[in-house]
Amino acid sequence: MIVASMGISSVATTSAADEFSDLGKDFFVEHCARCHGIDASGKGPDAADLKTDPADLTKISDRRGGVWPMLEVMSILDGYLKVQEPRDDMPIINELNDGPTVEFDTGNGLVTRIPSRLIEVAEYLESIQSPKPERYVP
């Protein structure tokens, strides 16, 4: 069984994204690249047709002062934050919740079962951050 864990740290650490699976990248290309682009810069072929410009997903940690916010990214991916930050053009991708689940340490001592596909996509996005994250929070 795969166990994904994230620790709170104020120094740079090696993250799970350093060894992300190709499954996360493949899922991104299949479901996200039309809007966000193959390089995740927000310049996909469908981007011009959207009301809201797609985010540059390579700059998530840069926009947060060098912090990689794993739980926030996973919540945006699976649609839970759609209510808080409405984006009409951002679809909820139900396939993220399909398939096996794995134990995930939320960083506060709680371990919960999370769809492995959701973690794989978040880890892929973490792996393409430019610049690389300096700190990690769950």
Overview of this structure, please?
It contains five helices and five strands. It has 138 residues and is an alpha/beta fold. The strands form two sheets. The protein has a three-stranded mixed sheet. Strands 2-5 form a two-stranded parallel sheet. Helix 1 packs across helix 5 (116-127).
Helical amount: 25-40%
Q: Hey, roughly how much beta strand do the residues contain?
A: 5-15%
- The helix-strand sequence is EHHHEHEEHE
Q: What number is the mean pLDDT?
A: 83
**Unreliable stretches:** 1-15
Overall body shape: globular
Keywords:
single chain, 138 residues, alpha/beta, 5 helices, 5 strands
Element layout with pairings:
Layout: E1 3-5, H1 22-31, H2 33-36, H3 60-63, E2 67-69, H4 70-78, E3 101-105, E4 111-115, H5 116-127, E5 135-137
Parallel strand pairs: 1-3, 2-5
Antiparallel strand pairs: 3-4
What is the gist of this entry?
By secondary structure, the chain is of the alpha/beta class. The protein is 28% helix and 14% strand.
